[in-house]
Design brief:
33% of the residues lie in helices and 22% in strands. It is an alpha/beta fold and 329 residues long. The chain is globular and about 60 Å long. The structure holds 3-amino-D-alanine (2RA). Keywords: Amino-acid biosynthesis, Diaminopimelate biosynthesis, Lysine biosynthesis, Methionine biosynthesis, NADP, Oxidoreductase, Threonine biosynthesis.
């Protein structure tokens, strides 16, 4: 089995390598692939030196699986070329997510929809993944009418240059500006590009991807996405209105037995999810569970996950694991 990691030198790319190692992902040959300017670079991984190769050489090698984290335009151009030679592409960009011919997969929810002909599989947006994973067991039990979500997102979601901006500000240096404003000691109600309807692309991703993953266009979703000066993960305040009433103890036990979800909800002992404790973990953490007393059938929850893990690398590696488990590769 040949496995390619495309965009191996980026933040998500290195996280993918870390998760593959931790999960003992089985492969015979690993191809580390990146753009022209990184070709020829040596990367030491699991005690072995790997030379970074270019995309054309990687296609020629016909890997069985390629995990892409190289940006939308690279995915649009190269994913079909890999698919043509029979590679399963698992793509972290937004390029294919809303394409009706492509599956948008969070393995715990909808991996069973994947078939042998799904050669390009989209990994959802990080902030969407953690929210839908925590909501899924509750959706199954009570049905969802409406979701109102506000996010508090880590600078790692923007990439290494944004982390560098924040650290330079913190060190009192002149930063290379990635954001239109300072990020340290600040909060930006702005993630990705503003759309004609006044929402940002990130907000629209949360709205549209949630409906696609749940396979239900009747669910109402509204979202405000915000960048905050933290690194360990994304946090979300979620207000969810169910079709039926719920019992709080049952909500807790449904979440406790949901795969990939960990409940941290003991406010009297100051136990609740935080980015600093979710950092480098594969799971999604849920807490602050409480009834919204302002309207019926409505729950408030706080959801945190490492956006580079379950929001990107871990979810992608789990899709690859599913392909192997089901004998699709
Ligand atoms: C962010 N959702 O946090 C993006 C990363 N995919 O900016």
């Amino acid at each position: 089995m040949k496995l390619a990691v495309v965009g191996a030198t980026g933040l998500v790319g290195s996280e993918i390598l870390e998760v593959l190692d931790e999960h003992n992902f089985p492969y015979d040959e690993l191809l580390l692939v990146a753009s022209e300017r990184s070709v020829g670079k040596q990367i030491e991984y699991k005690g072995k030196k790997h030379t970074v190769i270019g995309l054309a050489d990687a296609v020629a090698a016909k890997p069985e699986i390629a995990i892409f984290s190289a940006g939308g335009s690279t995915s649009l151009e190269w994913a079909p070329k890999f698919a043509e030679v029979g590679t399963f592409v698992i793509d972290n960009s937004s390029a294919w997510r809303m394409d009706p011919t492509k599956k948008l997969v969070v393995p715990e929810i909808n991996a069973k929809e994947i078939t042998a002909s799904d050669k390009i599989i989209a990994n959802p947006n990080c902030s969407t993944i953690q929210m839908v994973l925590a909501l899924e067991p509750l959706r199954q039990r009570y049905g969802i009418k409406r979701i109102v979500v506000s996010t508090y997102q880590s600078v790692t979601g923007t990439g290494k240059a944004a982390v560098d901006q924040m650290m330079a500000e913190r060190a009192g240096e002149v930063p290379q500006m990635v954001y239109p404003h300072k990020i340290d000691m600040n909060v930006l109600p702005h993630i990705d590009v503003f759309q004609p309807n006044g929402y940002t692309k990130e907000e629209m991703k949360m709205i549209n991807e949630t409906k696609k993953i749940f396979g239900d266009n009747s669910i109402q979703v509204t979202s405000t996405t915000v960048r905050i000066p933290t690194m360990g993960g994304h946090s979300e305040a979620v207000n969810v209105e169910f079709k039926q009433d719920f019992d709080l103890a049952e909500v807790r036990s449904l979440l406790e037995s949901a795969p990939g979800v960990i409940v941290q909800d003991d406010p009297t002992n100051f136990i609740y999810p935080m980015p600093i404790t979710a950092h480098k973990k594969d799971e999604v953490f849920v807490g602050r569970l409480r009834r919204d007393e302002s309207q019926p059938n409505t729950l408030n929850m706080w959801i945190v996950a490492d956006n580079l893990r379950k929001g990107a690398a871990t979810n992608a590696v789990q899709i690859a694991e599913y392909l192997l488990e089901k004998g699709l590769v």
